[in-house]
Write a structure and sequence with these properties.
single chain; alpha/beta; 4 helices; 7 strands; 17% strand
Length: 228
Amino acid sequence: MHRAIVTGSSAGIGRAIAESLLANGWQVTGLDRADAAIEHARYVHRQGDLAGVRPEAILSDDDCQADALVHAAGLMHAAPIGELEAEAGERLWRLHVVALERLANRLLPAMRARRAGRLVVIGSRVAAGLPRRSQYAASKSALIGLVRSWAGELAPFGVTANIVSPAATRTAMLDDPVRASSPPRTPPLGRLIEPDEIASLVGYLLSPQAAAITGQDIAICGGASLPS
């Protein structure tokens, strides 16, 4: 039975991914600072602040034999230049980038040794830059450099590393007051992306059929990346 570590598993995209994997026979360990939102015989919840000092300490030794790591935990903050908050920027960086570095540093060597494994990171279309979201964009764009670098290191060992970058997605994050000054942009498709659609793509990237896909930043954007 395959096992995945999924961050941000109590809500939004992370929860959709965890539930999709469980429905497809995976064993899932969810990491989230919130209480468990999933009850399933093959689900284990580990509660802790991934933006804390040592997020990797949340893992058990058994978790380190996981076949896949999916980093879906996310945080939004929007502010214009002149009103940027250092603490908000630091927390974005610690959750999106540092937590991934530390978790990957503990989990990926075992995958490399077994010559099999998957890393999927939830990025964002905003990584290319968007007014009022500079701190968020910076933390998401850093993920591209990390994942593509690791993909190059791991490819000879049969381990893949990819990014899935959604446009505005229908999650509770859209209702967060911190983004009132920077509302989501509806893709040309005419609707928001659904978490289940992202979960389906992630599931494919974790499958044997996706063994030749690595180092890619894959947009699921409803046409938002097309020329206007």
